[in-house]
Design brief:
The protein is of the alpha/beta class and 411 residues long. Helices cover 45% and strands 18% of the residues. The protein starts with a helix and ends with a helix.
């Protein structure tokens, strides 16, 4: 099941539990605006190349729309639509005053030079600058983009609208980025895992973790979990997968990855088949890469007792049902990976106020938001007698539905 179908399915299940009428349900489901633009740039060799850019603005009932921009060959309207909708529910679950959006350009960043990426980003910004804004739609980095990408968007947008640091988040610190933003999603995963394990009478210390995806989110989560006494027994990325049942030295692995651009060849662990990473024996599985990796074909072989979804939509609905029957507890993405957008909110607030926080305050506020979010999700689980995924979806959808109704948009 593709990401959009799965997201719509979860939304409709939540809508039924909440008893929303069909008119309001349609209002919440249909995106506010879908944007598709042509981005033609001169390449370094003088030839012209054309790319297609997308921005889907899903909902703004609770505040400005918020969501990342990804550069990836497989960016398509369905994926961007699904991720924009997920952002609407995610910001509502986190209880920050945002709606949801998502964007992207269908390209392979590794095939483009830095100057080509800059030209592409600036052309994309020129095409959408009048549709984004501090109180309208605030982009952020995503797959294939980074703080430098946000710096280019900020600069190009500011040519039209004046210096506007709050128009994007995830910026370099020197341009108004927030301390703690780089680690925020991974740190949020740690706080989410702590809350889940605490609810089951356990702690991070002594638990065995498998991390699928060792990019920004996975590497920070692994590092922070290790600092809390957790044991990372297997890790994978695009280059390969490694395992050490006694625990991987994450500090050494981070150094290896920096020098070799991947986990492959790390001497402190054994190489394993990357396809087996999700079914390795562990207590907690953290999928932190692409969506749809846990499906009906591999769900039956998963040995983890808990799954903390650091990636967007890593578990297909068919797999959800199989894992539920096995008693596996899944902490859903729209709560578990909300640390990034929460600290993006903190960055936006700092930019608007013109007053920057120290990192300790950022991390303390993030922990408070994540703990409060888990409690709110659990309360919805009790109210509707449902699992954590439906608890999160009913929480998010209900908050957006109430805001929409209060504003009178359903009429």
């Amino acid at each position: 099941m593709n990401a959009l179908a799965a997201t719509n399915r979860n939304f409709k299940l939540a809508s039924r539990l909440l008893g929303l009428d069909s008119k309001l349900e349609q209002c919440l489901l249909i995106p506010f605006r879908e944007i598709k633009v042509e981005c033609t740039i001169p390449k370094d060799d003088g030839s012209l190349a054309t790319f297609i850019g997308f921005r889907v603005q899903h909902d703004n009932a609770r505040g400005p729309m918020k969501g990342g921009i990804r550069y990836h060959p497989e960016v398509n309207p369905d994926e961007v639509n699904a991720l924009a909708q997920l952002m609407t529910w995610k910001t509502a679950v986190a209880n920050i005053p945002y709606g949801g959006a998502k964007g992207g350009i269908g390209c392979s960043p590794s095939d483009l030079s830095i100057s080509e990426l800059e030209r592409l980003t600036r052309v994309f910004t020129q095409k959408i600058h009048d549709l984004i804004g501090i109180h309208t739609d605030v982009p952020a980095p995503d797959m294939g983009t980074n703080p430098q990408t946000m710096a280019w968007i900020l600069d190009e947008y500011s040519k039209f609208h004046g210096y506007s640091p709050a128009v994007v988040t995830g910026k370099p610190i020197d341009l108004g980025g927030s301390l703690g933003r780089d680690a925020a999603t991974g740190r949020g995963v740690l706080f989410a895992a702590e809350a889940l394990l605490r609810d089951h009478g356990k702690s991070i210390a002594g638990q065995r973790f498998v991390v699928q995806g060792f990019g920004n989110v996975g590497s920070w989560a692994a590092q922070l979990i290790t600092e809390q006494g957790g044991k990372i027994v297997a890790v994978s990325d695009i280059t390969g997968a490694i395992k050490n049942k006694n625990g991987i030295d994450i500090a050494s692995l981070l150094k290896h990855v920096k020098e070799n651009r991947g986990v492959k060849g790390f001497h402190g662990a054994d190489s394993i088949d990357p396809n087996s990473i999700l079914v390795e024996d562990c207590d907690v599985l953290i999928p932190a890469a692409l969506g749809g990796v846990i499906n009906r074909d591999n769900a039956k072989d998963i040995k983890a007792k808990f799954i903390v979804e650091a990636a967007n939509h890593p578990t297909d609905p068919e797999a959800d049902e199989i894992l539920a029957k096995k008693g596996v507890v899944i902490l859903p993405d729209i709560y578990a990976n909300s640390g990034g957008v929460t600290v993006s909110y903190f960055e936006w607030v700092q930019n608007i106020q013109g007053f920057m926080w120290d990192e300790e305050r950022v991390n303390t506020e993030l922990k408070a938001y994540m703990n409060r979010g888990f409690k709110d999700v659990k309360d919805m689980c009790k109210t509707h007698n449902c699992d954590l995924r439906m608890g999160a979806f009913t929480l998010g959808v209900n908050r957006v539905a109430r805001a929409t109704t209060l504003r009178g948009w359903e009429a």
